[in-house]
Amino acid sequence: MPWKKHRVLRHVKFKSIQSRIAVAFSFLILFTVLVIAFVSYRLSADAVERNSREYTYQLIQQVNANIETYISYMDNISQMVLNNYDVKEYLSTPAASADAGGLDQQIARQFQEQKISEQFTSIINARKDISSIMIFGSNGKFVSNNKHKSLNNYANPKEQSWYKAALEANGKAVVSSSHIQNIFEDEYRWVVSLSRKLTSGDGKETAGVFLVDLNYSVINDMCNKIKLGKKGYIFIIDKEGNIVYHPQQQLIYSNLKTELVDQVLKATSSSFTTNEGKESRMYTIKESAGTGWKIVGVAYVDELVANKKETQTYYILGAIGFMLIAIALSFIISSRISRPIRQLEVSMKEVEKGNFDSKVEITSLDEVGELSRAFNMMTDEIKALMRQNVKEQELKRKSELKALQAQINPHFLYNTLDSIIWMAEGRKSEEVVLMTSALAKLFRLSISKGEELITLFSEVEHIKSYLTIQEMRYRNKLNFEIQVEEEILHYKVLKIILQPLVENSIYHGIKNKNGDGLIRIIGKQVADKILLQVMDNGVGMTPEEMRKIFEKSDKSRKGSGVGVRNVNERIKLYFGDEYGLSFESELDKGTTANVWLPVLE
Q: What are phi and psi of 95, to 5 degrees?
């Protein structure tokens, strides 16, 4: 059909085979170039990411080495205190006996405390990174590097986590995570503590706990110096996942920021990368052998390739350059391939002008030669189809002529005008106006500006006018109902397909019936088709009469089948054999005419 042909042509973007071949080659080369460029870029990005991971690992390895050096020094201090004679003697004397002794014993105890405190002070003076050194004896004694500081009455040393951990470790040094040390009155410092259990001379009894506090600022300064891009950072956790150091530690404690601590603890490799889009991070992990801490470097993936945009630009420019070269080569090659086809095109244009006697000379046995042979066969087929089409058009014109004759039935017009005259003489002005308006609307819709296809809405209005006239003519004899779905009223249908069916129902069904007659018109969509039904409660038909409906016989009673056959032929000519009319009927019960049409916008 013409409208389908134009619809297809609108989607054709390339009118020549040469352009199609050129575009196909170009896209093929472009695809190859893009794949190579993408793979090259990914390899480059992976290499940069791998180098960044190794660089980050080296940095955190250096941080780990520095931390282990500090912790090792604190452990050496604890070893020295553990083996110190003055400390052992000081802790071996019960505090109660010393206080109860004479003045000489008290002076001796004070001398020991001062001596131990001075030793601690000399260590701290040599190392500014140590905050304090203390001994908590099981006998209730206490000595620190600052004898002027008093213990906090609200902080029991034996309840502190570092104290309990030291007792559980049985002589091994225990390093705590960062915490606030509140053991002294009016002093609260962020520290990392190393604690160790002190034993008696025979090593069987607990003599006390030794504690060294390392200034937290040491770890903070050490980690702050490490830069992993603009947004990268380092943080440290202990074996239990507690934060030892984080550059945003306050936000962590306030739950305003979170870290993948569980994933770090469970990590089986030295690094992993998160999948967070532009915020994806690469975690590099190093576990300290001395402390059990895990030092984690966090780098943002989008910062790993510093010249990412420049690299992308180079690849894009290279791809464009290759594309331009590919297009030039594609047009040269496609021109040579399509030259014989263009010669065939010249002959096809002759046929397009109407010269179906034009033949293409076959000069080769390749695909173009086969195409030329097929073209010659096609022109012969076209001439045969044209002869067949002339016959079909002649049949169509005859059907259209019968349709026009059915539109204006003189007998119907005479009877309608007689009814109008009769009502006018009886001074029934309202009925005259109604019938005259219906008649005018009927003829106006019948003409429909010469168009063969009209909306279903117009067809329904046409049959409504026709039935209005007939209802007034057959007063108290004819009633009608129209039930058509609103969703299908905008679809296109052939005009004047319902009137012949309704007329058939009136004159051959209801007119010969005793009692009131009813005509129902139903319209609905069934799958991809439209179904219109004309139902009457007339006298019905026998099976033999139904078989003769579509027979081309001039002996049909009172011309009952002419309009019906006309409608059926018109529908099949326009839309195909799968559409048309079918009937269902039963004597003394009525007849149903089914009209099947395509869904046509």
A: -65, -35
SS3 465: helix
Using CA atoms, how far residue 401 sits from 84, 131, 302, 459, 526, in Å, is 129, 115, 78, 19, 31
Structure-block tokens of residue 329: 């080569």
From residue 299, give the alpha-carbon distance in Å to each of 46, 234, 274, 280, 315: 14, 9, 11, 9, 25
CB 196 within 8 A of CB 166: yes
Q: Which of 504, 464, 491, 492 is closest to 480 using CA atoms?
A: 464
**Burial classification of residue 174, based on how many CB atoms lie within 10 Å of its CB (0-12 exposed, 13-18 middle, 19 or more buried):** buried
DSSP code for 487:
G
CB of 85 closer than 8 Å to CB of 314: no
Residues whose CB falls within 8 Å of the CB of residue 466, separated by 6 or more in sequence, listed in order: 438, 442, 499, 502, 503
What SS3 state is found at 195?
strand
How do residues 547-565 score in pLDDT, each as one tens digit? 888 776 544 444 445 678 8
Which one-letter amino acid corresponds to residue 57?
A: Y
The identity of residue 395, as a single letter, is: L
Range with top average pLDDT, 38-52, 232-246, 394-408:
232-246
pLDDT in tens, 114-162: 888 888 888 888 777 788 888 888 777 888 887 777 788 888 888 888 8
DSSP code for 449: G
Give, as one character, the DSSP assignment of residue 484: E
DSSP code of 509?
Answer: I
pLDDT digits (tens, 9 = 90+) for 339-348: 777 777 777 7
pTM as predicted:
0.44
The CB-side HSE value for 134 (13 A sphere, CA atoms) comes to 25
Q: Which residue has the tokens 């004397």?
A: 93
